[in-house]
């Protein structure tokens, strides 16, 4: 009886903490939009310098958010291979099991752009970070690829989820070809990051309040070795090269999911 009560109390606390965390995220994003970013926009500097400032603000804000979730007991996390990130012109490709994957990644990469849904440009909690950090809309796929390639060639780094949306637990990966096309056109340094979450939570099919009953979730990030592109760049026509690289990435992350499936502490 005592153990069941402890589980219930812990669950109620984590549910409350989750609500507080996401409320804080929304309010924080709005305050950045109306208070912080307007000040940054009037500081002297080129467009690229202003974007980098915006990315730094988002990075530190997300770092604080992940720290909040950890400290109040919602989640634990681990990062393996962090030293392989934060390089100029780096394309970071990751799988996408949970809602907070992008927050977790950006909290560890100081200057990174990413692709966002066009609908989020109207979200008051996200509009400020999106506009001021130079994030790229997926509204026009051709323009999206062009913008990503230009950013990488100019020495910027990017985080992309090849799935395009969150994974469905138990389903095989189905990668879109955009990430592979961007990698080959930009000739970028491609670094894979395998993200795992146990117990599964904040997936595409779950609302924010559907949290694990017995324990906090554990989010792990394993940074792999750079993926060599030379063999794919030699393939003609380019459409075949994109298709083969996309298949390679899909197989790679499928294998990583099996290796890093977290079986729990």
From TrEMBL:
Highest taxon in the source lineage: Bacteria
Membrane-spanning intervals of the chain: 12-36, 57-77
InterPro entries (alphabetical): Plipid/glycerol_acylTrfase
Coiled coil: none
Keywords tagged on the record: Acyltransferase, Membrane, Transferase, Transmembrane, Transmembrane helix
Domain Phospholipid/glycerol acyltransferase: 90-198
GO biological process, one term: phosphatidic acid biosynthetic process
Biochemical pathway: Lipid metabolism
Example of a GO MF term: 1-acylglycerol-3-phosphate O-acyltransferase activity
PANTHER family: 1-ACYL-SN-GLYCEROL-3-PHOSPHATE ACYLTRANSFERASE, PHOSPHOLIPID_GLYCEROL ACYLTRANSFERASE DOMAIN-CONTAINING PROTEIN
Name of this protein: 1-acyl-sn-glycerol-3-phosphate acyltransferase
Species name: Methylomicrobium album BG8
């Amino acid at each position: 009886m005592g153990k069941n009560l402890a589980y219930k109390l812990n669950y109620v606390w984590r549910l409350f903490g989750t609500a507080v965390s996401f409320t804080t995220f929304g309010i924080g994003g709005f305050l950045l939009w109306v208070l912080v970013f307007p000040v940054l926009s009037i500081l002297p500097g080129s467009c690229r310098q202003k974007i980098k400032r915006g990315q730094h603000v988002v990075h530190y804000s997300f770092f604080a958010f992940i720290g909040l979730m950890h400290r109040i007991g919602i989640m634990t996390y681990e990062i393996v291979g962090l030293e392989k990130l934060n390089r100029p012109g780096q394309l970071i490709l990751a799988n996408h099991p949970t809602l907070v994957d992008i927050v977790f990644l950006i909290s560890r990469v100081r200057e990174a752009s990413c692709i966002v849904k066009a609908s989020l440009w109207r979200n008051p909690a996200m509009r400020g970070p999106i506009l001021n950090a130079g994030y790229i809309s997926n509204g026009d796929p051709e323009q999206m690829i062009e913008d990503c390639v230009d950013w990488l060639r100019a020495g910027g780094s990017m985080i992309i989820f090849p799935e395009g949306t969150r994974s469905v637990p138990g389903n095989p990966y189905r990668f879109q070809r955009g990430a592979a096309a961007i990698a080959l056109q930009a000739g970028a340094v491609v670094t894979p990051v395998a993200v795992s979450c146990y117990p599964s939570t904040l997936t595409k099919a779950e609302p924010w309040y559907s949290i694990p009953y017995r324990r906090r979730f554990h989010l792990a990030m394993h940074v792999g070795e750079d993926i060599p592109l030379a063999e794919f760049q030699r393939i003609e026509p380019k459409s075949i090269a994109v298709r083969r690289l996309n298949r390679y990435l899909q197989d790679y992350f499928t294998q990583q999911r099996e290796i890093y499936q977290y079986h729990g502490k």
